[in-house]
Amino acid sequence: MAQGLGEGGTAGKPGFATLIETTDWAATPLGPRAGWPQALRTILRLMQHSGQPMFLAWGKELSFLYNDAYVPILGARHPAALGQPFRAVWSEVWEELLPLVQRALQGTSTWMENLHLVLHRNGYPEDNWYTFSYSPVHDDAGAIAGMFCTCMETTGQVLAERRLRENEGRFRALLDAAPAMMRVTDRDGHCTHLNRSWYAFTGQDEATGLGLGWLEAVHPEDRPRAKAQFARAVAARESLRVDYRLRHVDGSWRWAIDAAEPRIDPEGRYLGHVGSVMDITDRREAEERQTLLAREVDHRAKNVLAVVQAALRLTRATDIGSFTRTLEGRVAALARAQTLLAKDSWVGADLETMLRGELAAFLGEEPALQARAWLEGPAIALPAEATQPLTMLVHELATNAVKHGALSVEAGHLAVRWWLSDQRLVLTWTESGGPPLAAPPSRVGFGTRVLDATARRQLGGTIALDWRPEGLACRLGIPLRRKPPAPDATDSATLTIL
Asked: Where is the PAS domain positioned along the sequence (predicted)?
């Protein structure tokens, strides 16, 4: 029996083969080695050459025999445990193991996975976990003579899995506390966790959201694209970024951006994806407004350039100085209109602010303006599309008043009144105290064209001019909700500006 067993052992302690040879077996229930049955010898040889922890409990006392791989499990009980009764070796857990031992001795094998045992193998209690099997063994006559065990300590694995579960629990608690919608998936791309924000936003629950159910909250038109991009990210173990419309709990569709990153464990294994879903509806609408605003600015800039070009073509003067002053005044009026629109984000402008700005360009600051002009009317917000045309119209009226009308003399005065009538702005421009008018002017200039094109064609309104001896009286009617004018709309009234 001694031949071929080898030495084995651990540092400072004899190995399995040495102990078998040097132990006085005659003083144990097993008796002298020479009398050991062949079945016992065969199992011992199997144990000696295996790197798997094993032990054999043999005979009536279940004498304990183990290989070198089992020594770390015994701890400080090695080598004294060799040959001792099983119940003495593991006395602190004997009551727990006894039912398993009895089943094996009755001929039934048992298998236990990650069984928790509190052992005192090093002189103090330790929590340990083991995966093992107990199998009956037979002597040479075929009778059950003991129990054979192959085992593995799984304490490290169990504790690692427990830490992983605890970390997962903390991770999910963190996700649930996040204000953004969060999602965790497994290796196959199936959703294993959705946080509270997702359920609160979409109205889904675990029964409808987990797995691939979360896709049901995506707009039907966006769903195929979102599903395909997510599948590609899972297959390639790569980042994901996709936007789609997501159903809100109130039934509306909100734009969302879904960004996910692969989860990799410390060993480099892919675990799935973790992603966040953010409502970007407000941002998207702001971007769309910005785009529309840029287009509006571009459109208005082109309109301004068109008006400037028209002013260049139609402005007439007796000398270059007059031409320059007239043209600069019209361009300045355009600039003031653009400034008013920009101040209110291109949504419109206050009518009185526009009027005061245009008259101040001719009369100076507020005290002088109040001495020469009377402005009266309610607060009215001009639509954006009406602001620039109406500014040019008022500028031409003021230019005429300064050159030829009431504002050309110190005694002259101007009254501007306005009100709303059936969603129309009615504005009257009344001059008095200026040079007497003998008759209406006979020549049509740029100003006349501006008045007609502005009031009728651009604003879809009406204009009426009354050339009274004491000064011009003009009445404008402008719909604040644009109605296209009739194609053949004309007005015979004229005003000499140039």
From this structure: 167-237
